[in-house]
Amino acid sequence: MKKIFLPLILVFFAATVFSQKVVSVKTKDPAILLSSVEALKTASDDNIAIKVYKIANVSGSAHVLGTDEVSHRFLISVSSIDDAPEVHLYNVGDFYAPKILGLTKVSKGVFKLSIEYDAPRRKWAEINITLKNVTLINRNKR
Hints:
Helices cover 13% and strands 47% of the residues. The protein is mainly beta. The strands form two sheets. The protein has a four-stranded antiparallel β-sheet with strand order 1-2-3-4. The chain has a four-stranded antiparallel β-sheet with strand order 5-6-7-8, with no helix packed on it. Strand 7 and strand 8 (134-139) form a beta hairpin. The radius of gyration is 15 Å and the shape is globular. It comes from Mucilaginibacter humi. Keywords: Signal.
């Protein structure tokens, strides 16, 4: 429980936000945020630990005519591994019908999140993750 709750607390105190479209985290109720988590992916090495949360946006956020389908965003929590960890939270999105393909280590302290999104015509994106930076590095390439 502690492993899940700590990153959610970070949502409310994060100062660093990067995204395809920058959206600040405004939810003050942890119950609302917890009920919106649809997927969790984790990875770590000797330097950093990463948790990726797939979060559903509000009903109708996908803007598909005649439906109430939702879009999603990813909250990426990155922390150093030491006694007083440096912690950052990044908000990446919005994506329509995203699926996490993988979270892989590229090199020491560098990871890559691969996703596909935008049904029915699937697109792909790769997100480079380090302790102090999250960058969209590739789109529509597989």
